[in-house]
């Protein structure tokens, strides 16, 4: 679009004219054609160049305008562009200054409106006409605002020029008639002209503003009245809806309970892949839950009030339905939270004061290039990973952290009902994941033969022992026994899959919990842990999958579902739901909560089929439940945990030095201790030494095994058959690794068999699951009392 050629210098949106622009010391000032339009000041050599060649442009929104003398002024945008300009006269210069200041004010407003356009966007109206009216009002308001800004700018200029004119008139009064009279009269005339120009600009702006205001005043009054009437109608409608909602709620709570003939059939004990859980939200009293069972989806609703009255009186019919005897303490009557007034808790007397802090984590930046640089010329199996990815605990110590909420098993041991006991076991299972929500550091991979004891017999009534029983694949055996009537044992191997953006860690192996008094034997497996943003972004951890807890004595089952995180889900993050059923598949308890905060349970009083259809078209099971009771709640992290690897109170004590532990205990591992002290470079060097020592010991065992199998050959296996553990457990590896769950012997990837025999665990076939496993043979605590550790290997 071409600009008009006629140079009509009048203040407005577009202003054109000749000015002299400073070029250099040789040519000095040169005459150029300047055009001011849309907040931009452009110049050309001649008017003819306007259609094709622009010599330069400066944005006035960020520019500074300064006057040097009667004809000269400077425009600069902060150093990159500076125009030294000169007008033919002071009046001409003032016209340009006025036009430039007005254009600058408009450009600044336009830039601010552009930056805030996202905030000023209006929501879509119900109809097209409403959206058009809204857009028209917004446009009119912007125009009026622009005119008000013009008035403000003109007001400032009038005040400025009016003061100058007043000074000139005062000077004129004191001048004697003579030679300087004509000069003073000329100055007064010029200042009066400037004042007239500015006044005319303000008068024009006022006229435009008044015309717009009058044109839209009546229309706005009608629109305002319509909005008021619509608001009154909405308030009346909302009040009616609230009354209807209250009426429906009272009618629903007084509805008749469904007959027992509609109760749900037995649930498949094996279970198939479940459908998606119900996406309904929970109400304020936590009486409605989203949960997912093996065969069909279900929802829960509050039970009829008569069940609440019957449960409070301990009616024998309800007790028999729950499998309890009269006079026993039911799950609804006892507190689900820890009871500090119980006799056993009063007997707990700490024998020593445990530490509550460790040195703060150093703020060392990780240079990936320095890692790759040190790998040049080395075999892949000999590349060590730095401790920057670790936390100062071993995998054995992380395994012992499962006992942080041991009180759940203590309370489960007191239960008379196996179904109640199942609820506590399920809460204990979920609680073991609560420490992982912020723990993005990788624990140290234990050395073969490494152990870790957690002796809390006098403080908490239990003892725990872990041992690394296999190195390829890595596997650890764990055994804990409590004087309060329960035993926990497990053997966990890890399989990992690296998918580029995330790392999935699948624990393999079963966990066993045996209660001495009832002889109930529970087994379950762990869910998948996923570490997201491995390469780019902030690391975060999620738990997902399903757990089936089975009581092998009674046939009771608990199916837990850990919902994976979804950006589009309406459910709370890290949600866990579950159902406790008896051997016939009848539901008795519904569990709900999150694996990082708490778990609750509700007793099922009635169940029926025929709710809303699920995502796959099947009908949901409706459970009528009593009010939820809290089973477990996470203990808050200690103060300053973000600087201590987000360790819990128990985790802070796990690596605390203790006297009398075995020489293979993780507390005596030097690289882990150096990392805890913040000496990471020394820890990296020590880690390499320990890994080389482990490779040497393994070569010696293979040599002895080959001599026994082939005494005439005595060949030594190649070093290339050895796989460095720091590579196999690194979250940065780019290959997928799947670890066998049932190795007949400890075997590396090249097929070599390791003849290592665990110190405190015997390898056997589990009688409950039929899986090969390691079970504690005994003797560790007796050896500790004797202080005779001569048979322990030297691994550090």
From TrEMBL:
It comes from the Eukaryota. Residues 111-142, 257-285, 305-352, 657-753 are annotated as: Disordered. Residues 217-251 form a coiled coil. InterPro entries: OSBP_sf, Oxysterol-bd, Oxysterol-bd_CS, PH-like_dom_sf, PH_domain. SMART domains: PH. Residues 12-105 form the PH domain. One of its GO terms (molecular function) is sterol binding. GO terms for biological process: lipid transport. One of its GO terms (cellular component) is membrane. Residues 665-718 have a biased composition (Basic and acidic residues). The keyword Phosphoprotein applies. Belongs to the OSBP family. This is Oxysterol-binding protein. It comes from Danio rerio.
